[in-house]
């Protein structure tokens, strides 16, 4: 028996999230089907975490058990031939049988992208939320730093969350602005990328954080409101849930010693 760990990129626009759902059409369903087509095995993927419908990934990690003798360097190309063009496997490693993609993940990073230019970018419209009106980016930066730390993030969790413990650690978070798609001499504000790295995340947590940042950017809230929002442990005190398509699972990190080539 072999334990194969893979990394996958996907455009989540037309899928019902990563994890298998009763109505099908998930990233997991398509990858498991591709493995069956390639090896004849019905495997069950274990992912680093789930992503919701419409959310994308640049670095989703999963593992599965197989008895296939296919050389490790051939797995990605072989499976990509069976996958839709918006799901691409980019890396494969053989790992110890004890490796578990979710339990052993140390840090996860998400990126949320806001197009703050006057006009949407037709070529990136599926991965950016378009917000053409003025945002106070510096106030958003200040508010974001006040979300970093170890807190009970109930105010930033979906009311549908089934987790009993809402304490999480956000290790770092920052905002970058890409002006390369902005029109010279215009009032375009660029593409605002918000990166959040943590030990783990609650349902909709990053999207609610970003929705709250947009409230700050619009002047509806101030950075100084963030500590009280955290302390309230009340979802109604935070901002709206930002739309799904601006969110991307950017990276998942593991201890180096849990993998072998």
TrEMBL record:
An example Gene Ontology molecular-function term: tRNA pseudouridine(38-40) synthase activity
Keyword Thylakoid included in the entry's annotation: no
UniProt-listed Pfam families: PseudoU_synth_1
Enzyme Commission number(s) of this protein: 5.4.99.12
Active site: 52 (nucleophile)
Keywords: Isomerase, tRNA processing
Broad class of enzyme this protein falls into: isomerase
Keyword Ligase part of the UniProt annotation: no
Residue intervals of the Pseudouridine synthase I TruA alpha/beta domain: 8-102, 143-255
List of residues binding substrate: 110
Reactions this protein catalyses: uridine(38/39/40) in tRNA = pseudouridine(38/39/40) in tRNA
Superkingdom per UniProt: Bacteria
NCBIfam families: hisT_truA (TIGR00071)
Alphabetical list of HAMAP family matching this protein: TruA
Subunit structure: Homodimer.
Role description: Formation of pseudouridine at positions 38, 39 and 40 in the anticodon stem and loop of transfer RNAs.
Family: Belongs to the tRNA pseudouridine synthase TruA family.
Stated name of the protein: tRNA pseudouridine synthase A
